[in-house]
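chain and backbone:
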Amino acid sequence: MESIHDNVKYDIAIIIPVYNASSWLPDCLRSIACQIKNKLKVELSVYDDGSTDESLAVIEKWKPVLEAEGFKVLISGHSGPPKGVGFAKNQSIQQSSGKYLCFQDSDDEMKPGRLTLQYNASLEHPDAIIGSKFERDPPDSTLRYTYWANSLTQEQLNQQVLTSHGPTVIMPTWFCSRDLFNRVGEFDEKGKGTPEDLIFFYRHLDLKGKIFRVDEVLLVYRYHPLQTTFSIDEKVIWDLRLKRLVKYFLGKWDNFTIWNAGKQGRRLYRSLPEEYRSQVTSFCDVDEKKIKQGNYIYENSNLRPKPRVPIVHFTTAKPPFVICVKLDLTKGEFEKNLHSLNLLENVDYVMFS
């Protein structure tokens, strides 16, 4: 018998990769069932990446509930070892047909107006990945990160792309056209430890894509020890950020100053290819103890004499700056100092904190 959904053209496909999420799926699927669709035709595309818990049973239980609310529900997956989030997302996208893609993690919850607000934003900004503000559950988890992500201006969403925080709009809030996704290409499928969202994010920016955020809280972003975030290799993220820093900034500057004479600033210096280490004119800081050292000596260098980089006060340092200072850790002092120099972001300085 032919389904009533078979000849429908869907506006939105909700993309959900699943792996051992039975504890969170009821809340996730309930939040989807409660979406305000305003005549939008929506399909839910679930791909199970080899779950060993009751995830599939939970999804099957919710399928008729979602269908009763007008959603088409697509469920597939595989048994055996998980192949990774990137693979599961790609499979979920391939089996769906919606003109727009709404990415949802199986442990998070949508706010009721998410689909309509992001759909409308995507119509206005067709070349952008659309994100949104979010709230954390529990509320006191990752306070600094949540504040940073929710406080970025629309301009900063496209500027502060090199920080350790990753994409300036979090992956579980992403919404974009299928055309945009096809232009950027599928998610990386290397598996566990791979930041597939950051890799996609950078490819999108390389193609002159934009980032836009709906400035309303449209997601409950759950924090727990089993999050896939905790499996990401920090060194891989560092190397991706460094490669982009060199390509888009250091390769265009004759010299530069590293703002932070401490651990993170020195790590950056040591990580740089030799030709870019030679372009570092100084480290700058506000810590008098560090400044009194006079120089940072790179002891592991093969060069003779070993490189000696001056450590100076930020007021005497020369831009451009690569800033390795974490925000919101100095009660506003760093931000005040930076603002006092009247510099332009991504021209006179770049955030690499």
In short: The longest helix spans residues 234-248. The first strand starts at residue 12 and ends at 18. The CA atoms of residues 186 and 213 lie 22 Å apart.
